[in-house]
Specification:
- Helix content is 30%, strand content 27%.
- The protein has 16 helices and 26 strands.
- The chain has a 6-stranded parallel sheet, with helices on both faces.
- α1 (18-31) crosses α15 (460-478).
- It is globular, with a radius of gyration of 23 Å.
- The two termini are 23 Å apart.
Length: 496
Amino acid sequence: MQRLHPVMLAGTGSDVGKSVLAAALCRIFKQDGYHPAPFKAQNMALNSYATPEGFEIGRAQAVQAEAAGVACHTDMNPLLLKPQSDHTSQVVLNGKPIGNKDAYDYWRRGTSDIDFRKEVCDAFDRLSARYHPIVMEGAGSISELNLRDTDIVNMSMARHANADVILVGDIDRGGVFASVYGSIALQTEEDKKRIKGIVINKFRGDLRLFDDGRRMLEDICQVPVLGVVPYFTDIHIEEEDSVALSGKSRVAERGKVNVAVVLLRHLSNFTDFNVLERDPRVHLFYTSNTEDLLKSDVIILPGTKSTLSDLYELRRNGCAQAIVRAHRKGAVVLGICGGYQMMGVEVCDPHHLEGDVERLPGLGLLPVSTTMTAGKTTRQVTFNNNWHGYEIHQGVTRRFGDAECRPFVTFDDGKTDGCVTDERCMGTYIHGILDNGEFIDQLLKPFADRMLAAEAPFDYNAYKQQQYDLLADHVRKYVDIPRLYQILQDDDRRTR
Protein backbone atom coordinates (compact mmCIF):
# COMPACT_ATOMS: atom_id res chain seq x y z
CA MET A 1 0.00 0.00 0.00
CA GLN A 2 1.16 3.51 -0.73
CA ARG A 3 2.83 5.05 2.28
CA LEU A 4 0.79 7.86 3.81
CA HIS A 5 2.19 11.05 5.31
CA PRO A 6 1.87 11.45 9.07
CA VAL A 7 -1.26 13.37 10.01
CA MET A 8 -1.55 15.67 13.02
CA LEU A 9 -4.86 16.60 14.63
CA ALA A 10 -4.20 20.07 16.04
CA GLY A 11 -6.71 22.09 18.03
CA THR A 12 -8.07 25.59 18.38
CA GLY A 13 -8.07 24.90 22.13
CA SER A 14 -8.19 22.19 24.78
CA ASP A 15 -11.03 19.65 24.89
CA VAL A 16 -12.08 20.21 21.26
CA GLY A 17 -12.07 16.46 20.62
CA LYS A 18 -8.60 15.82 19.23
CA SER A 19 -8.02 12.63 21.22
CA VAL A 20 -11.28 10.99 20.18
CA LEU A 21 -10.85 11.97 16.52
CA ALA A 22 -7.31 10.57 16.62
CA ALA A 23 -8.72 7.29 17.95
CA ALA A 24 -11.24 7.33 15.09
CA LEU A 25 -8.53 7.79 12.46
CA CYS A 26 -6.45 5.03 14.04
CA ARG A 27 -9.44 2.70 13.73
CA ILE A 28 -10.26 3.81 10.18
CA PHE A 29 -6.70 3.31 8.95
CA LYS A 30 -6.63 -0.13 10.61
CA GLN A 31 -9.93 -1.08 8.96
CA ASP A 32 -8.56 0.02 5.59
CA GLY A 33 -5.54 -2.25 5.84
CA TYR A 34 -2.87 0.12 7.13
CA HIS A 35 -0.70 -0.37 10.23
CA PRO A 36 -1.23 2.91 12.13
CA ALA A 37 0.02 4.07 15.50
CA PRO A 38 -0.76 7.14 17.65
CA PHE A 39 1.75 9.73 18.78
CA LYS A 40 1.61 12.69 21.15
CA ALA A 41 4.99 14.22 21.95
CA GLN A 42 3.93 15.74 25.25
CA ASN A 43 0.83 15.04 27.26
CA MET A 44 -0.45 16.55 30.50
CA ALA A 45 -2.85 14.27 32.35
CA LEU A 46 -3.39 12.40 35.59
CA ASN A 47 -4.91 9.43 33.78
CA SER A 48 -2.08 7.20 32.66
CA TYR A 49 -1.49 3.59 31.65
CA ALA A 50 1.23 0.96 31.98
CA THR A 51 2.71 -0.44 28.78
CA PRO A 52 3.44 -4.19 28.42
CA GLU A 53 7.06 -3.38 29.26
CA GLY A 54 6.01 -1.73 32.53
CA PHE A 55 6.42 1.94 31.59
CA GLU A 56 3.97 4.83 31.87
CA ILE A 57 2.19 6.78 29.12
CA GLY A 58 -0.89 8.97 28.82
CA ARG A 59 -4.17 7.08 28.83
CA ALA A 60 -5.32 8.68 25.56
CA GLN A 61 -2.44 7.17 23.59
CA ALA A 62 -3.16 3.74 25.13
CA VAL A 63 -6.77 4.08 23.97
CA GLN A 64 -5.68 5.18 20.50
CA ALA A 65 -3.27 2.25 20.28
CA GLU A 66 -6.10 -0.09 21.23
CA ALA A 67 -8.22 1.44 18.46
CA ALA A 68 -5.32 0.88 16.06
CA GLY A 69 -5.01 -2.73 17.17
CA VAL A 70 -1.42 -2.43 18.39
CA ALA A 71 0.28 -2.67 21.77
CA CYS A 72 0.94 0.68 23.41
CA HIS A 73 4.55 1.84 23.76
CA THR A 74 6.35 4.78 25.35
CA ASP A 75 7.36 6.05 21.89
CA MET A 76 3.68 6.93 21.42
CA ASN A 77 3.86 9.42 24.30
CA PRO A 78 7.51 10.02 25.24
CA LEU A 79 6.83 12.95 27.57
CA LEU A 80 4.06 12.93 30.17
CA LEU A 81 3.44 15.67 32.72
CA LYS A 82 1.37 14.69 35.77
CA PRO A 83 0.21 17.81 37.64
CA GLN A 84 0.83 17.78 41.38
CA SER A 85 -0.25 21.36 42.09
CA ASP A 86 -1.05 24.53 40.16
CA HIS A 87 2.67 25.11 39.66
CA THR A 88 4.45 21.74 39.63
CA SER A 89 4.24 18.48 37.71
CA GLN A 90 5.94 15.12 37.83
CA VAL A 91 7.84 14.65 34.57
CA VAL A 92 7.71 11.18 33.04
CA LEU A 93 10.21 10.74 30.20
CA ASN A 94 10.12 7.64 28.03
CA GLY A 95 7.91 5.97 30.60
CA LYS A 96 10.03 6.71 33.69
CA PRO A 97 9.62 9.55 36.22
CA ILE A 98 12.65 11.85 36.28
CA GLY A 99 11.51 14.23 39.01
CA ASN A 100 9.22 17.17 39.65
CA LYS A 101 9.42 20.42 37.73
CA ASP A 102 8.16 23.90 38.41
CA ALA A 103 6.08 25.00 35.41
CA TYR A 104 8.12 28.16 34.85
CA ASP A 105 11.43 26.34 34.98
CA TYR A 106 10.12 23.57 32.74
CA TRP A 107 8.96 25.91 30.01
CA ARG A 108 12.16 27.94 30.14
CA ARG A 109 13.96 24.77 28.97
CA GLY A 110 17.36 26.28 29.68
CA THR A 111 17.10 25.13 33.29
CA SER A 112 17.15 21.46 32.30
CA ASP A 113 20.09 19.38 31.19
CA ILE A 114 17.73 17.18 29.19
CA ASP A 115 17.00 18.03 25.56
CA PHE A 116 13.27 17.25 25.58
CA ARG A 117 12.90 18.24 21.93
CA LYS A 118 15.47 15.66 20.86
CA GLU A 119 13.87 13.01 23.08
CA VAL A 120 10.41 13.39 21.55
CA CYS A 121 11.75 13.64 17.99
CA ASP A 122 13.80 10.47 18.47
CA ALA A 123 10.69 8.70 19.78
CA PHE A 124 8.71 9.77 16.72
CA ASP A 125 11.44 8.59 14.38
CA ARG A 126 11.53 5.16 16.03
CA LEU A 127 7.74 4.88 15.85
CA SER A 128 7.48 5.97 12.21
CA ALA A 129 10.02 3.29 11.26
CA ARG A 130 7.62 0.63 12.57
CA TYR A 131 4.16 1.94 11.68
CA HIS A 132 2.32 3.99 9.12
CA PRO A 133 0.54 6.26 9.05
CA ILE A 134 1.38 7.93 12.34
CA VAL A 135 -1.70 9.66 13.76
CA MET A 136 -0.32 12.58 15.74
CA GLU A 137 -2.15 14.66 18.31
CA GLY A 138 -1.34 18.21 19.28
CA ALA A 139 -1.92 19.71 22.71
CA GLY A 140 -4.27 22.54 23.64
CA SER A 141 -4.24 25.37 21.13
CA ILE A 142 -1.73 25.73 18.30
CA SER A 143 -1.82 29.52 18.60
CA GLU A 144 -0.21 30.06 22.02
CA LEU A 145 2.33 32.61 20.77
CA ASN A 146 4.16 32.90 24.10
CA LEU A 147 5.02 29.19 23.92
CA ARG A 148 6.02 29.05 20.26
CA ASP A 149 9.76 29.05 20.92
CA THR A 150 9.49 26.17 23.38
CA ASP A 151 6.79 24.18 21.59
CA ILE A 152 7.61 20.50 21.13
CA VAL A 153 4.12 19.08 20.65
CA ASN A 154 2.28 21.17 18.05
CA MET A 155 3.58 22.80 14.87
CA SER A 156 7.27 22.27 15.61
CA MET A 157 6.57 18.55 15.93
CA ALA A 158 4.56 18.64 12.70
CA ARG A 159 7.56 20.21 10.98
CA HIS A 160 9.88 17.50 12.26
CA ALA A 161 7.48 14.76 11.15
CA ASN A 162 6.69 16.53 7.86
CA ALA A 163 3.07 15.95 8.75
CA ASP A 164 -0.15 17.21 7.23
CA VAL A 165 -2.11 19.12 9.88
CA ILE A 166 -5.87 18.95 10.29
CA LEU A 167 -7.21 21.74 12.51
CA VAL A 168 -10.05 20.74 14.86
CA GLY A 169 -12.49 23.38 16.08
CA ASP A 170 -15.24 22.93 18.69
CA ILE A 171 -18.47 24.57 17.54
CA ASP A 172 -20.32 23.60 20.71
CA ARG A 173 -18.46 26.14 22.82
CA GLY A 174 -19.16 28.96 20.35
CA GLY A 175 -16.86 31.30 18.44
CA VAL A 176 -15.75 28.64 15.97
CA PHE A 177 -15.15 31.11 13.10
CA ALA A 178 -12.86 33.29 15.18
CA SER A 179 -11.04 30.37 16.77
CA VAL A 180 -10.41 28.56 13.47
CA TYR A 181 -9.49 31.65 11.48
CA GLY A 182 -7.38 33.09 14.30
CA SER A 183 -5.55 29.82 14.85
CA ILE A 184 -4.50 29.77 11.21
CA ALA A 185 -3.81 33.51 10.88
CA LEU A 186 -1.41 33.45 13.84
CA GLN A 187 0.83 30.80 12.27
CA THR A 188 4.03 31.52 10.39
CA GLU A 189 3.79 31.34 6.62
CA GLU A 190 5.57 27.99 6.65
CA ASP A 191 3.18 26.51 9.19
CA LYS A 192 0.09 27.91 7.45
CA LYS A 193 1.00 25.85 4.38
CA ARG A 194 1.12 22.74 6.50
CA ILE A 195 -2.54 23.05 7.61
CA LYS A 196 -4.36 21.03 4.92
CA GLY A 197 -7.85 20.72 6.33
CA ILE A 198 -10.39 21.77 8.96
CA VAL A 199 -12.77 19.58 10.93
CA ILE A 200 -15.60 21.20 12.87
CA ASN A 201 -16.43 19.03 15.86
CA LYS A 202 -19.35 18.66 18.32
CA PHE A 203 -22.07 20.12 16.09
CA ARG A 204 -25.62 20.04 17.49
CA GLY A 205 -28.70 20.33 15.32
CA ASP A 206 -29.41 20.20 11.58
CA LEU A 207 -26.14 20.07 9.65
CA ARG A 208 -27.73 21.89 6.71
CA LEU A 209 -27.79 25.03 8.83
CA PHE A 210 -23.99 25.11 8.64
CA ASP A 211 -23.68 24.75 4.85
CA ASP A 212 -23.11 28.49 4.41
CA GLY A 213 -20.78 28.53 7.40
CA ARG A 214 -18.69 25.81 5.85
CA ARG A 215 -18.27 27.78 2.63
CA MET A 216 -17.48 30.96 4.58
CA LEU A 217 -14.76 29.22 6.56
CA GLU A 218 -13.17 27.89 3.41
CA ASP A 219 -13.26 31.35 1.81
CA ILE A 220 -11.67 33.21 4.72
CA CYS A 221 -9.17 30.49 5.67
CA GLN A 222 -8.35 29.19 2.19
CA VAL A 223 -8.32 25.70 3.70
CA PRO A 224 -10.90 22.99 2.89
CA VAL A 225 -13.39 21.95 5.55
CA LEU A 226 -13.12 18.16 5.49
CA GLY A 227 -16.09 17.54 7.74
CA VAL A 228 -18.58 18.68 10.34
CA VAL A 229 -18.90 16.01 13.00
CA PRO A 230 -22.11 15.92 15.07
CA TYR A 231 -21.96 15.75 18.84
CA PHE A 232 -22.62 12.21 20.05
CA THR A 233 -23.60 10.71 23.39
CA ASP A 234 -24.23 7.10 22.34
CA ILE A 235 -20.60 6.16 21.60
CA HIS A 236 -18.38 5.66 24.61
CA ILE A 237 -14.63 6.13 24.31
CA GLU A 238 -12.43 6.31 27.41
CA GLU A 239 -11.31 9.86 28.14
CA GLU A 240 -8.25 11.03 30.05
CA ASP A 241 -9.03 14.69 30.65
CA SER A 242 -10.55 15.57 34.02
CA VAL A 243 -12.96 17.86 32.11
CA ALA A 244 -14.91 14.66 31.38
CA LEU A 245 -15.75 14.30 35.08
CA SER A 246 -18.04 17.32 34.89
CA GLY A 247 -20.49 15.27 32.85
CA LYS A 248 -20.60 12.34 35.27
CA SER A 249 -23.51 11.62 37.58
CA ARG A 250 -23.22 13.21 41.03
CA VAL A 251 -26.18 11.77 42.98
CA ALA A 252 -27.51 8.42 44.16
CA GLU A 253 -30.41 6.73 42.37
CA ARG A 254 -33.11 4.32 43.52
CA GLY A 255 -33.57 0.80 42.14
CA LYS A 256 -29.94 -0.12 41.51
CA VAL A 257 -26.78 -0.75 43.47
CA ASN A 258 -25.42 2.74 44.15
CA VAL A 259 -21.65 2.90 43.72
CA ALA A 260 -20.03 6.14 44.91
CA VAL A 261 -16.59 7.09 43.68
CA VAL A 262 -15.11 9.58 46.14
CA LEU A 263 -14.41 12.79 44.23
CA LEU A 264 -10.84 13.56 45.26
CA ARG A 265 -9.10 16.81 44.35
CA HIS A 266 -6.25 14.94 42.63
CA LEU A 267 -8.28 11.99 41.35
CA SER A 268 -6.41 9.99 38.72
CA ASN A 269 -7.25 7.10 36.39
CA PHE A 270 -11.01 7.60 36.57
CA THR A 271 -11.21 5.33 33.52
CA ASP A 272 -11.06 2.53 36.12
CA PHE A 273 -14.80 3.03 36.53
CA ASN A 274 -15.97 3.16 32.91
CA VAL A 275 -17.08 -0.46 32.94
CA LEU A 276 -19.26 0.08 36.03
CA GLU A 277 -20.97 2.98 34.25
CA ARG A 278 -22.15 0.46 31.61
CA ASP A 279 -23.24 -2.28 34.03
CA PRO A 280 -27.09 -2.38 34.08
CA ARG A 281 -27.10 -3.48 37.73
CA VAL A 282 -25.24 -0.40 38.91
CA HIS A 283 -25.68 3.33 39.23
CA LEU A 284 -22.23 4.88 39.54
CA PHE A 285 -21.75 8.47 40.65
CA TYR A 286 -18.95 10.75 41.86
CA THR A 287 -19.35 12.66 45.10
CA SER A 288 -17.65 14.34 48.03
CA ASN A 289 -21.00 14.87 49.79
CA THR A 290 -21.11 13.09 53.13
CA GLU A 291 -24.87 12.42 52.99
CA ASP A 292 -24.60 10.75 49.58
CA LEU A 293 -21.70 8.62 50.82
CA LEU A 294 -23.88 7.41 53.68
CA LYS A 295 -26.61 6.40 51.16
CA SER A 296 -24.19 4.37 49.03
CA ASP A 297 -24.03 0.61 48.78
CA VAL A 298 -20.45 0.56 47.51
CA ILE A 299 -17.84 3.28 48.10
CA ILE A 300 -14.70 3.32 45.98
CA LEU A 301 -11.69 5.36 47.01
CA PRO A 302 -9.92 5.95 43.68
CA GLY A 303 -6.33 6.64 42.71
CA THR A 304 -4.79 10.02 43.39
CA LYS A 305 -1.64 11.85 42.43
CA SER A 306 -1.31 13.30 45.96
CA THR A 307 -2.28 10.74 48.58
CA LEU A 308 -1.50 12.76 51.70
CA SER A 309 -3.07 15.96 50.41
CA ASP A 310 -6.30 14.18 49.48
CA LEU A 311 -6.32 12.20 52.73
CA TYR A 312 -5.99 15.45 54.68
CA GLU A 313 -8.90 16.93 52.69
CA LEU A 314 -11.09 13.86 53.34
CA ARG A 315 -10.54 14.32 57.04
CA ARG A 316 -11.18 18.06 56.84
CA ASN A 317 -14.44 17.83 54.88
CA GLY A 318 -15.90 14.91 56.86
CA CYS A 319 -15.76 12.34 54.05
CA ALA A 320 -13.31 10.11 55.91
CA GLN A 321 -15.66 9.83 58.87
CA ALA A 322 -18.66 9.29 56.56
CA ILE A 323 -16.91 6.43 54.74
CA VAL A 324 -16.12 4.68 58.03
CA ARG A 325 -19.72 5.15 59.23
CA ALA A 326 -21.12 3.86 55.92
CA HIS A 327 -18.93 0.77 56.18
CA ARG A 328 -20.14 0.08 59.70
CA LYS A 329 -23.72 0.26 58.37
CA GLY A 330 -22.96 -2.37 55.71
CA ALA A 331 -21.47 -0.54 52.71
CA VAL A 332 -18.72 -2.21 50.73
CA VAL A 333 -15.51 -0.12 50.62
CA LEU A 334 -12.90 -0.69 47.93
CA GLY A 335 -9.66 1.27 47.68
CA ILE A 336 -7.64 1.39 44.46
CA CYS A 337 -4.02 2.55 44.46
CA GLY A 338 -3.92 5.81 46.45
CA GLY A 339 -7.37 4.95 47.79
CA TYR A 340 -5.97 1.66 49.10
CA GLN A 341 -3.19 3.58 50.85
CA MET A 342 -5.75 5.87 52.52
CA MET A 343 -7.76 2.92 53.83
CA GLY A 344 -4.84 1.79 56.00
CA VAL A 345 -3.81 2.77 59.50
CA GLU A 346 -1.35 5.42 58.36
CA VAL A 347 0.42 7.00 55.39
CA CYS A 348 3.99 8.12 56.04
CA ASP A 349 6.17 10.41 53.94
CA PRO A 350 9.50 10.57 55.81
CA HIS A 351 11.37 11.96 52.80
CA HIS A 352 8.80 14.71 52.08
CA LEU A 353 8.13 13.46 48.55
CA GLU A 354 4.60 14.90 48.57
CA GLY A 355 5.02 17.82 50.95
CA ASP A 356 5.85 18.83 54.49
CA VAL A 357 3.55 16.38 56.28
CA GLU A 358 5.46 13.28 57.44
CA ARG A 359 2.52 11.21 58.67
CA LEU A 360 -1.26 11.17 58.53
CA PRO A 361 -3.59 8.61 60.09
CA GLY A 362 -5.58 6.72 57.48
CA LEU A 363 -9.19 5.58 57.66
CA GLY A 364 -8.17 2.51 59.68
CA LEU A 365 -10.31 0.14 57.62
CA LEU A 366 -7.36 -2.07 56.62
CA PRO A 367 -4.47 -3.25 58.87
CA VAL A 368 -1.72 -1.82 56.64
CA SER A 369 0.79 1.03 56.69
CA THR A 370 2.11 2.86 53.64
CA THR A 371 5.46 4.61 53.30
CA MET A 372 5.93 6.90 50.30
CA THR A 373 9.09 6.08 48.32
CA ALA A 374 10.90 7.76 45.44
CA GLY A 375 10.75 4.64 43.27
CA LYS A 376 7.70 4.10 41.08
CA THR A 377 6.06 0.79 40.21
CA THR A 378 4.65 0.57 36.68
CA ARG A 379 3.73 -2.80 35.22
CA GLN A 380 0.96 -4.88 33.72
CA VAL A 381 -0.18 -7.85 35.82
CA THR A 382 -2.17 -11.07 35.39
CA PHE A 383 -3.82 -13.06 38.17
CA ASN A 384 -6.74 -15.36 39.02
CA ASN A 385 -6.62 -17.37 35.78
CA ASN A 386 -6.33 -14.64 33.18
CA TRP A 387 -7.59 -11.57 34.98
CA HIS A 388 -5.66 -8.48 33.91
CA GLY A 389 -4.74 -5.06 35.27
CA TYR A 390 -1.82 -2.69 35.74
CA GLU A 391 0.04 -0.90 38.52
CA ILE A 392 1.19 2.73 38.54
CA HIS A 393 2.07 3.91 42.03
CA GLN A 394 4.63 5.27 44.44
CA GLY A 395 4.87 3.94 47.96
CA VAL A 396 5.20 0.58 49.69
CA THR A 397 2.32 -0.86 51.72
CA ARG A 398 2.94 -3.46 54.41
CA ARG A 399 1.06 -5.16 57.24
CA PHE A 400 0.72 -2.92 60.28
CA GLY A 401 2.33 -4.51 63.33
CA ASP A 402 1.11 -8.03 64.04
CA ALA A 403 -2.31 -7.52 62.50
CA GLU A 404 -3.65 -10.20 60.18
CA CYS A 405 -3.61 -9.09 56.56
CA ARG A 406 -5.05 -11.41 53.91
CA PRO A 407 -3.78 -10.62 50.38
CA PHE A 408 -6.29 -9.30 47.89
CA VAL A 409 -4.89 -11.37 44.98
CA THR A 410 -1.92 -13.54 44.08
CA PHE A 411 -0.25 -12.73 40.78
CA ASP A 412 0.79 -15.36 38.28
CA ASP A 413 4.40 -14.82 39.35
CA GLY A 414 3.54 -15.77 42.93
CA LYS A 415 3.70 -12.25 44.41
CA THR A 416 0.70 -10.87 46.29
CA ASP A 417 -1.12 -7.55 46.26
CA GLY A 418 -3.47 -5.64 48.47
CA CYS A 419 -5.40 -6.51 51.57
CA VAL A 420 -8.91 -7.79 52.27
CA THR A 421 -10.65 -8.25 55.60
CA ASP A 422 -13.96 -9.59 54.21
CA GLU A 423 -16.24 -9.21 51.18
CA ARG A 424 -17.11 -5.67 52.29
CA CYS A 425 -13.62 -4.21 52.83
CA MET A 426 -10.65 -4.49 50.47
CA GLY A 427 -7.83 -2.54 48.88
CA THR A 428 -5.53 -3.08 45.91
CA TYR A 429 -2.90 -1.33 43.82
CA ILE A 430 -4.38 -2.79 40.61
CA HIS A 431 -5.84 -0.33 38.13
CA GLY A 432 -8.23 -2.01 35.71
CA ILE A 433 -9.39 -4.49 38.34
CA LEU A 434 -12.99 -3.57 37.49
CA ASP A 435 -12.47 -4.52 33.84
CA ASN A 436 -12.68 -8.14 35.03
CA GLY A 437 -16.35 -9.08 35.12
CA GLU A 438 -15.94 -11.82 37.69
CA PHE A 439 -14.54 -9.33 40.18
CA ILE A 440 -17.54 -7.03 39.72
CA ASP A 441 -19.79 -9.99 40.43
CA GLN A 442 -17.89 -10.54 43.69
CA LEU A 443 -18.08 -6.85 44.56
CA LEU A 444 -21.85 -6.77 44.08
CA LYS A 445 -22.53 -10.16 45.69
CA PRO A 446 -23.76 -8.68 49.02
CA PHE A 447 -26.59 -6.99 47.09
CA ALA A 448 -27.67 -9.95 44.96
CA ASP A 449 -31.20 -9.91 46.40
CA ARG A 450 -32.05 -6.56 44.82
CA MET A 451 -29.90 -6.33 41.72
CA LEU A 452 -31.46 -6.08 38.31
CA ALA A 453 -30.68 -9.29 36.44
CA ALA A 454 -28.20 -8.78 33.64
CA GLU A 455 -29.14 -10.55 30.41
CA ALA A 456 -25.57 -11.80 29.91
CA PRO A 457 -22.12 -11.29 31.43
CA PHE A 458 -20.71 -7.94 30.36
CA ASP A 459 -17.63 -8.33 28.15
CA TYR A 460 -15.91 -4.95 28.46
CA ASN A 461 -13.16 -5.67 25.94
CA ALA A 462 -15.70 -6.68 23.28
CA TYR A 463 -17.72 -3.60 24.18
CA LYS A 464 -14.71 -1.31 23.65
CA GLN A 465 -13.96 -2.84 20.27
CA GLN A 466 -17.58 -2.28 19.24
CA GLN A 467 -17.34 1.36 20.35
CA TYR A 468 -14.21 1.94 18.24
CA ASP A 469 -16.05 0.57 15.21
CA LEU A 470 -19.07 2.79 15.92
CA LEU A 471 -16.77 5.79 16.27
CA ALA A 472 -15.08 5.00 12.95
CA ASP A 473 -18.48 4.68 11.27
CA HIS A 474 -19.57 8.03 12.71
CA VAL A 475 -16.45 9.85 11.50
CA ARG A 476 -16.55 8.19 8.07
CA LYS A 477 -20.12 9.45 7.68
CA TYR A 478 -19.30 13.08 8.34
CA VAL A 479 -15.63 13.50 7.34
CA ASP A 480 -14.43 13.25 3.73
CA ILE A 481 -12.06 10.32 4.27
CA PRO A 482 -11.27 9.85 0.53
CA ARG A 483 -10.15 13.47 0.39
CA LEU A 484 -8.07 12.96 3.51
CA TYR A 485 -6.35 10.02 1.84
CA GLN A 486 -5.66 12.22 -1.17
CA ILE A 487 -4.04 14.84 1.08
CA LEU A 488 -1.90 12.23 2.82
CA GLN A 489 -0.72 10.84 -0.53
CA ASP A 490 -0.12 14.10 -2.42
CA ASP A 491 3.63 14.76 -2.50
CA ASP A 492 3.23 17.82 -4.73
CA ARG A 493 1.55 19.72 -1.88
CA ARG A 494 4.15 18.92 0.76
CA THR A 495 6.00 21.62 2.60
CA ARG A 496 9.71 20.81 2.53
